[in-house]
Amino acid sequence: MRPRTATPVGRRPWPTRATVADRHQRSPTCKAGSVSLTDERYGAAMDRALTLARTAGEQGEVPVGAVVLAPDGRILAEAANAREAEHDPTAHAEVRALRAAGAALGRSHLDGCTLVVTLEPCTMCAGAIQLARLATVVLGAWEPRTGACGSVRDILRDPRANHRVEVRAGLRAAESEALLRSFFAERR
């Protein structure tokens, strides 16, 4: 077993935005930068996710919103973070949206569905996304500390997994980042 080395002083222990974007440009299953506001299917869903995130932030929750789209593009489910309100560490927007979509369809596998989320999912959420067998995740901002769709970990596209998920990144990233920055600035 290789010994773990410490992060040098003054060096960030997580990748910079440029490093993450470079890595994703080379990835065969990531369309980093390919998602635009002109794509109505994703743009409208991200509008809704951002609205949910704003509402969550106003209620003291970390401002993250998620929307699950059916293969035909209609909204199946939506949710915002509710960890504080529900006293539940698993009440992330992504998990709550997946639960609601599964209930709406009457099954746990969401084959062909897409998750549109304002922030890159964490390890727990990425695991749930993989188990739900989503086809695609469209994310707004990268999460450079706990992200699990490519910035810190890459659970959704791990070649050892029996299901891989396409990741599209950067849709309305500036708005998502601004929401988070504002939320945490008010609390620190």
Automatic annotation (TrEMBL):
It comes from Actinomyces respiraculi. Residues 40-151 form the CMP/dCMP-type deaminase domain. One of its GO terms (molecular function) is zinc ion binding. Homodimer. This is tRNA-specific adenosine deaminase. Catalyzes the deamination of adenosine to inosine at the wobble position 34 of tRNA(Arg2). InterPro entries: APOBEC/CMP_deaminase_Zn-bd, CMP_dCMP_dom, Cytidine_deaminase-like, tRNA_aden_deaminase. Binds 1 zinc ion per subunit. Its cofactor is Zn(2+). GO terms for biological process: tRNA wobble adenosine to inosine editing. The active site is at E94. It is an enzyme of class 3 (hydrolase). The lineage of its organism: Bacteria, Bacillati, Actinomycetota, Actinomycetes, Actinomycetales. Zn(2+) binds at H92, C122, C125.
